[in-house]
Amino acid sequence: MLRTVNRVLLGLLGLLLVVLGGSVLAVGLGLNAPSWWIHHGKDDVLLSDSERTRWQDEGWWWPTVIAALAVLLLLLLWWLAALLRRRRLPEVLVDTGDGEGALLRGRALEGVLASDAESMDGVHRAHTRLTGRRNAPGARVRLLLEPHVDPGTALTGLTAGALTHARKSAGLAALPAEVRLRAAKHRAERVS
Description:
The chain is of the alpha+beta class.
């Protein structure tokens, strides 16, 4: 969802900047602007002195401006933190048994876990993502199940099969998992 919000906000911001910048450039190059437009000619400024100082003596003006800018700053900082936060674990530390450790690529373990889950009977598609720290990873698994599959059976098969196999092969003491199950959409069967 964050990726969608990010793209929509960047698209709207880019469109707004292109329209405003293009219109100011067009008016500056000599094109006639509509009467309601904020910029009217080459020598026109966007905000005149009277427009800039109109609300300056009002008691509510500065607190409102400061509050709006503070909210905008907090939203931009939240957006930046969300963009910089790593959602996917890049590597997992595997105990090799000789006192040293080896690094296993997180995407490799995710791929194996997903292919093991997809090979189970009744699983249409599987998507996995590793989270947590590299010495204590966790897994988020989403399974798209065929309509005839019992969710409890699929969950038991996943924990006893794919998750246990991934935990043992990576030499992990534990691999906690959050599993989301969803049924595949299908057409209604005709009954006669």
